[in-house]
Amino acid sequence: xQVVNVGVIGLGNVGGGTLRVLAENAQQIELxxxxxxxxxxxxxxxxxxxxxxxxxxDVRRTSDWREVVTDPGIHIVAELIGGTxxxxxxxxxxxxxxxxxxTANKELMAMYGFQIWxxxxxxxxxxxxxxxxxxxxxxxxxxxxxxSGDRITTLYGILNGTSNYILTEIEKHGASFDSVLAxxxxxxxxxxxxxxxxxxxxxxxxxxxLSALAFGERITPSDIFxxxxxxxxxxxxxxxxxxxYTIRLLxxxxxxxxxxxxSVRPALIPQDTILAGVRGAxxxxxxxxxxxADTFYYGRGAGPLPTGVAVVSxxxxxxxxxxxxxxxRVSPFAHERLGEYEPISVEHEVVAYYLRxxxxxxxxxxxxxxxxxxxxGISLDAVLQLSxxxxxxxxxxxxxxxxxERAVRDAVRQMQELDFLVExxxxxxxxxxx
Length: 434
Hints:
Number of domains: 3
Shape: elongated
CATH superfamily of the largest domain: Dihydrodipicolinate Reductase, domain 2
Strand order of the largest sheet: 3-2-1-4-5-6
């Protein structure tokens, strides 16, 4: 096999970026591989709309993905359309036809990735998915091979660039969530329907994949406690700054004596930690191992070219494996088989908490709130109140000593019945152990 032929399905941002990297970096790719990696077919709903790089040469265009996965001359299929329906059909059909598969599909791989891998093993083909998480950071390779000799105990991540951009812009300019979201949509960072990003669902899929690699367990998105960032306001950053913290949408996977706890939610993190410096549309992953201690990985989490680099790197790895005829492949999930262990509820977590209230001011509010907390066995750490011009919508913050999530949630549910609250309290963990 002197040439490895590739069929690309999906000509959106990721597909376009992949083709550009393949075209403009062709000479280096061939020098590294020792053979040519050639795109022979591309597929999209409107295959003639996008202009392909001229240096790719003669490339067949089609709107029918079946023509790509059944083409006997194609060795690798790159699925770059996203979603969990048609994309799943494409990958299944590619495997049925003996094609190796490269995908950037985080949602599909989070939900069905291990089943797809088992089918790939049976079919003796290769599966690679580096671009599914943190496009510009080779975090799969790190967990799969780079630090595979360690035992991961904790994984922290900022895994959604859109949410991180929104939060850091609120922090920087003191603007409202809605106005920053509108600007993010105008710039193309956020979709017209931003729910997947701002509600934490995109980050949840990515954490499910990384947790499977890190801990060797079959994790699905529904295993992960998830909260979004819609309620974060400029006043929260003002209070966080007073406490020497900032706020990020934090993905967390921790081994505790009780079991593995997984969460995606906004959290206060100390300003002097490396994660606090992750701003804008960047991603980062912090892995803590039992033997190798802390390692940190930072880069562009999305975008056509960073993600395109990840896809092309996977194409190169799979092409090498095809050329060498290696019967033993490193699992894309870093483990030969994943366990059936179920994570425990986030209610078992014990950390410090930040509670932000908006109230109609009257005497005795702090005492009433403190009484509810005391009855749940929760100790106050501090009470903060910045100056405010109104007494009808007065914000203030109570920070708590480490307490169980269950106790804090029980207390907050009781607080919601109080008639002086303008809205339910905002509850954020304070990650002091970072």
